[in-house]
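Long-time lurker, first post. I've been practising inverse folding by hand and with some scripts of my own, and I keep getting stuck on stretches where the structure tokens seem ambiguous. Below is the full token string for one chain I'm working on. Before anyone asks, I'm not after the true native sequence, just a reasonable design that respects the backbone. If someone could post their per-position residues I'd love to compare against what I wrote down in my notebook.
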């Protein structure tokens, strides 16, 4: 099972573009992509905090967040693609009869259209979005729900993500965990301390772990 943003798909270009569109509408200059990238895995609120340097107490915070999501919804797959090597990993898993799925905190109104646009929705054995259940990661319920949907025992499953909450969710669900080091990890993050079973610098490293 894969997290979506920053693990299965490189969604940062489209999300960063949408955030800069909000800034442009307010007459502000664009932010550099590398400034925005680490916030992408942490949701729209984190992106607004990064983009405008304000928090939820600012009366403009929620309108900006809604506008960000409105722009993004209309531009889900402008540049978004699987990370290099990920398409080959999925194909090899399918060739070997290994099922895969997605567990993300991204709302279903973005998750499913995006996966569908990239031809991945019908290939996934399970897709659990951030609003599919009452609980979200780091709660283990979404991962356990994906296991049940795919008729898989948690102890025989692997969850790959690029945020500490992903590893906490996986550990709490009793699945094996890997950190996607190629994802949206901030310079001050320390994935080695998250308690994962392993670290993957590339999708090929995930394959080596799965196929060992």
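-- Answer (accepted) --
I ran through it position by position. Result:
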């Amino acid at each position: 099972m894969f997290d979506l943003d920053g693990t299965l798909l490189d969604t940062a270009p489209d999300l960063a573009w949408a955030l800069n569109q909000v800034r442009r509408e307010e007459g502000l200059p664009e932010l550099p992509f590398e400034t925005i990238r680490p916030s992408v895995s942490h949701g729209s609120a984190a992106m607004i905090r990064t983009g405008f340097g304000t928090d939820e107490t600012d009366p403009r915070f929620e309108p900006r967040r809604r506008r960000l999501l409105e722009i993004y919804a209309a531009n889900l797959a402008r540049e978004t693609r699987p990370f290099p090597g990920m398409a080959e990993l999925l194909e090899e898993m399918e060739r070997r009869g290994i099922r895969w799925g997605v567990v993300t905190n991204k709302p279903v109104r973005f998750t499913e259209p995006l996966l569908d646009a990239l031809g991945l929705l019908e290939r996934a054995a399970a897709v659990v979005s951030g609003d599919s259940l009452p609980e979200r990661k780091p709660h283990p319920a979404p991962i356990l729900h994906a296991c049940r949907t795919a008729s898989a025992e948690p102890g025989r499953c692997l969850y790959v993500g690029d945020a500490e909450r992903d590893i906490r969710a996986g550990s709490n669900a009793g699945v094996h965990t890997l950190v996607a080091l190629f994802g949206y990890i901030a310079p001050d993050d320390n994935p080695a301390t998250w308690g994962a079973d392993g670290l993957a610098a590339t999708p090929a490293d995930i394959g080596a772990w799965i196929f060992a």
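A couple of notes from the structure itself: Residues 200 and 208 are 9 Å apart (CA to CA). The radius of gyration is 17 Å. Happy to go over any region you disagree with.
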